[in-house]
Design brief:
It is built from two helices and ten strands; from the N terminus they run ββββββββαβαβ. The chain is mainly beta and 208 residues long. The strands form three sheets. It has a five-stranded antiparallel sheet with strand order 8-6-5-9-10, covered by helices on one side.
């Protein structure tokens, strides 16, 4: 399989329109247009019945002690963990393209609804759900795509890996909540006929 994008170039910075936040001189960050990027895939394996799209950031700090704290920097040698930004399931086999902004366009406080997604697809729960837990203004269940918003004081640039999986079944059977860990576990058990990825980068640290 091959994955291409009109929105993302391999290994290059992601445009702010596809991010959750952009740098701001007064407050470090400001909310952005938060549109999902364009994706298109080709050379689909024979027997494919559906697709799954996953976007994750593998560079999220494992400890939040220094995150977004004035006068501190998140150290580069801190162990990093995955943060899931997008889980889109049950994409029909005849679909080989997702238009920019078709699944997300703007930040929605408390999260977009789900799991029902436009065009009969199914959204999973992204990890902003946990990040905003307990926040009076933003707390809620975040379904679908919500873009990059790495710590503004991180010493490394974050990577955002978009992966399309071709499945031999029309639907991915996920046990438990539709979150990143459970979708990843379901994919490990599913008959995956092929996959392809593209990686963009993003930083809110204007000194990098």
């Amino acid at each position: 399989m091959k994955l291409t994008s009109q929105s993302i170039q391999e290994g290059q910075p992601i445009a702010g329109e596809f991010a959750f936040a952009v740098p701001d001189a007064s407050n470090h960050v400001a909310l952005s247009s938060n549109r999902n990027p364009h994706l298109a895939w080709s050379d689909v394996p024979a027997g494919t019945q559906s697709f799954v799209v996953v976007c994750h950031d593998p560079d999220v700090p494992s400890k939040g002690d220094d995150v977004n704290q004035e006068g501190r920097t998140v150290p580069a040698d801190l162990p990093r963990v995955d943060f899931y930004h997008w889980l889109l399931l049950d994409i029909p086999a005849a679909t080989t393209e997702i238009q920019a902004g078709s699944q997300a366009d703007g930040v929605v406080a408390r999260g977009k609804s789900g799991p029902a997604a436009p065009h009969g697809l199914r959204h999973g729960i992204n990890d902003y759900t946990g990040w905003f837990a307990g926040d009076a203004q933003m707390g809620g269940q975040y379904f679908g795509y919500d873009g990059p918003c790495p710590p503004w004081n991180d010493s490394i640039v974050h990577r955002y890996i978009f992966t399309v999986y071709a499945l031999a079944t029309p639907s991915l059977q996920v046990e438990g909540e539709l979150n990143g860990a459970n979708v990843k576990a379901a994919l490990a058990k599913a008959q995956v006929l092929g996959q392809a990825s593209i990686t963009g980068t993003y930083s809110l640290n204007t000194s990098l």
